């Protein structure tokens, strides 16, 4: 697995963090083109056991917010701890987007 795909948190573009299901192509229902990640809305960012913590926060750690799950800085909870990723068709922005929860 590509390590960039495992980076947690909110992001534009990027890759899909597969986990709930095996990787499957996200196909545009209108033209059949493979859709690409547009936006990931994540329940959590990093935690203190994760190598993806920003370098500047390693020297001066930001306390994790209390609650479940920790590292939920936005307090947005997707399906009790998962991520919502929107995929968009590269052929046309008028084609509807596809949602994926992982
Ligand atoms: Zn399309």
Describe it for me?
The protein has 102 residues and is mainly beta. The protein has one domain. It has a four-stranded antiparallel sheet with strand order 1-2-3-4, with no helix packed on it. The two termini are 15 Å apart. Zinc ion binds next to loops.
Please describe the structure with a list of short key phrases separated by commas or semicolons.
single chain; 102 residues; mainly beta; four-stranded antiparallel sheet; 5% helix; 19% strand; binds zinc ion
Topology:
Elements: E1 11-12, E2 36-42, H1 55-59, E3 83-88, E4 98-101
Antiparallel strand pairs: 1-2, 2-3, 3-4
The structure holds zinc ion.
**What kind of assembly state do the chains in view correspond to?**
single chain
Q: How many individual domains?
A: 1
Largest sheet: 4 strands, antiparallel
The overall pLDDT average reads 83
What is the N-to-C succession of helices and strands? EEHEE
Sheet with the most strands: spatial strand order: 1-2-3-4
Stretches where pLDDT falls below 50 for ≥5 residues?
A: none
Ligands bound to this protein structure = zinc ion
Helix content: under 10%
Approximate shape: elongated
* Whole-angstrom Rg: 15 Å
Summarize the structure.
This protein has 102 residues and is mostly beta strands.
């Amino acid at each position: 697995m590509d390590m960039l795909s495992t980076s947690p948190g909110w992001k534009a573009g990027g890759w899909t963090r597969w986990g709930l299901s095996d990787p499957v192509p996200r196909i545009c229902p209108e033209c059949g083109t493979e859709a690409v990640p547009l936006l990931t809305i994540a329940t959590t960012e990093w935690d203190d056991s994760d190598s993806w913590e920003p370098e500047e926060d390693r020297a001066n750690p930001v306390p994790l917010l209390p609650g479940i799950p920790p590292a939920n800085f936005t307090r947005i909870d997707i399906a009790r701890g998962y991520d919502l990723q929107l995929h968009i068709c590269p052929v046309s922005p008028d084609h509807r987007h596809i949602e994926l929860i992982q």
